[in-house]
Batch of 4 targets.
Target 1
Amino acid sequence: MQGYGCRSVLGFRLPSELGKDSRPQSPRRTTMTDAKTFLKQLRATLKQHGFQRLNANNYFHRAEFLLCLFTIQKSMYGGQYYFDVYYRLADGDPKEKNYRALWFGRLESLFATEHETIRSIDFDDPALVSQFAPQFLARLPAIADALAAWTDTTAFLQRFGDDFSAEQQAAIAAHTFRPE
């Protein structure tokens, strides 16, 4: 069957075709070996879930008081990708430097159950990428929705409130907080 390599008509490998990986594979499973394809799908998903493009590697979601910035970073030393998240006041230009962020960190620190999947986006290791990139892209809509939801002040304080004093929490809730 054209386009499915050595798989049978039903989309599974025949017993004689089984090699190192003896698990049957669905024909719908996409092998992710190209960083450009991965990034294109990642960017499209962010846009579909309300994030606006700032530039090729930065997307933001703005609410009334808070802005979430999603940053895509490639390692200088290899093919690994990192994803940073910043929450800051929405009163400025999204291009403004993030030194005034209310909260910032790596994406995997926000989604503990996805830690291994997020940290394993490394295009220097085809086995990792083929396993984890499709999983990450499948989970990205829910991740993007959660990131966007946390731009609501109440949701932000429920998720990140422990990082702030009671006075700071009250100021965030009242939309009067200003980082020092």
Note: Helices lie at 35-48, 107-110, 115-119, 126-149, 153-160, 166-173.
Target 2
Amino acid sequence: MRFSLCHLALSTVFLFTLALPRLGRCATQGAYSLPDLEILESERSYTEFFAHALDVRPSERSDYWKKMVESMGEGLLKAYQDKTRLDHKDFQQMEKLTSWPVLQRNEFFRQRRAEVGLKWFQQCLTEDSTPGSSCWGDLLVFWEKGRQDIDLAPRLLKVISPYLERSTPGSEVAHQARAKI
């Protein structure tokens, strides 16, 4: 009996020793490295790039990494500008990236964000301008994140003003949009 317990203990330790390095690799296997991001940048693979750009540890986010993120952010929004028709997921992706500090400081990204946002609201409100539609909620969030852009308010008002008149007087979201802009 003593032999079998000792044998079992040694076997367990041996197997654990073999498995330990693999466990460490499994934990980091899904993380992308800077060379991985470089390949995605060269391929202009925006979705995958932004899904993994934050895999790079904060201590390793060099100026080179920041320039890559800025370039890809600007490129993504340029691709959105060139699309004939935007999807709601395009708008959501753009707004998600707006919270990244490196892109918040990028003037070109902010300018392109304004252009894509205006295009989105023109399209979205044309399709559904009813009070309470998601367009109005998106509009409020868009405005709150872009208030520092002094040129945005008049341009946004020009896009939405035809739809403000159509909204019912009791429309809470439309009134909030009108009051904030």
Note: The two ends are 81 Å apart (CA to CA).
Target 3
Amino acid sequence: MFRGDFMKYAAAYAPYLALLLLIRFAAEVTMHSCMQLLLVFLPCLLLYLGCSIAVPFYAYRLVKKSYMQNQQLPVVSFTIFMFVFASLIISLVQYVFYAYLSPDYIDNLYQNLLANIQITAKVYPNLAANFQQIADTMVLPTPLQFATASIATNRLVGAILGLMYMLIIRFKQKKNNPQS
């Protein structure tokens, strides 16, 4: 693998990461939809937390596997592009879900947010005016805006994790080769 081919390999590893992100998204959606059903909510919460914790470790495994094949791999760029390609796959699934499968999901999510703001305003009456101003200015995003927000979020997560992976790999490399 040449240094310039890292995007091709990032795109090849992205579906594996996207599968884990898809499981996390399905758990999140089910968790939000079944808040009242404790027998459904708890397993979905545990699955969501498990997938959220597993994403950085699984991504590190993929980066390390690629780095072992090519020591010239730009770790940070590879990780960012792997997350970008995975988030493109996930955002497509999210858009189909928000726009066609459950068009009222975003509206229900924001209605629950407004209800929580009103409950919090009752608990903290001195902040009630601020909460009401937030509730009045809140605009419901479109399914496309909601889905593309995950691309930016995953790109940021990929950049942060890429920097951490680079430091870990360089530290292990120096530890194994003290003269370099």
Note: The first helix runs from residue 6 to 33.
Target 4
Amino acid sequence: MSNEINETKVLCDIVKNYAIDNSIKYVVIFAKQIENVLYLQSILNDTDVKVLATTFPNNQILYLEGEDGNINEVTPEILNTSSRDKLKKKGVDLIASTLPLDPIIIPGNEYNPYTVINQTLNLFGTGVNLTVQSALMVTDNGYIKPGERIVSMTASIAVDLTTSNSRFLFHPELGIKIHKTLD
């Protein structure tokens, strides 16, 4: 088992205990693959905590640098039919949606305010931008109501936050509130 997988499992265990101790009803995990989602579900299966998984939009192609230095086109494993079926059997809802802070690609224009927001969120820890976007995704898609306290996580960081709709992200009363990072 790789060190990265061990660290993620340790984080999942921390999240489980934190959610139970703080009466949090939902844990949202952003994932490209299903292994971490299935592990999280297995350790929360005997609790009242519901696991929701978020990922990239359907038909999204990712461009990732391979070990050889070449850029490869990859479709996230979690989006294939077999993965979706496994998650469904385990009772995990998969929300495949546009990331609310993903910049729109405009050829010749490199400025995008969403990039600044993403970078600012990551000042709190690498991946905080994805935890916030996951929380927005599940709220925007009706899986969680605005104002719900949840834990939102990636493979490397988890955040205790209160949800909002994307439109109200920075609203003084209705916006997302980050309470604590767990890493």
Note: The longest strand covers residues 50-55.
